[in-house]
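GNAT family N-acetyltransferase: structure tokens wanted.
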Amino acid sequence: MNIKLEKFTENDFTHYLKLVNDEKVMEMITERALETDEAKAEFDKQIQNNKLSENFGNFKILDSASKEFIGLAKIEIKAKDDQEAEIGYMILPKFWGKGIASKVGKKLIEIAKSQEEINRLFAIIDPKNLPSRKILINNGFVSKEFKDFDGLPGEVLELTL
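Answer:
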């Protein structure tokens, strides 16, 4: 399956809610599904972040052929002049085990490498999320630290570009 990334727009909340309201998707992220109000607040923050840069932000993962929604990919900066970006993804369970996360990871790294200002990528994962850890390590990321994120365990991995 070939994938493409398109930025989320204000009209895409139903796709976002489908992801973050799924307990399986959120198990390794927040350990719980998000309710509609909380999801809307998070989605609005992501839409605002998307306005920082044409090349960075939160993207829909779509099947290139059918345009079916697969999940979310992010390569996120916090300010216009940032030199680092955070990558991450969430994929609907019916698409797990099909190599999509690996393709998304590679695409996000390519985007970062094409932007001169970015010299470091990082990802934060649940230490129990071995498939995501394997994808990151296979793409050159190295483990930097384990720390607490809002009461949840996290491992920070980074890639110097």
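The mean pLDDT is 95. Helices lie at 13-20, 23-26, 36-50, 100-113, 130-138.

Cheers.
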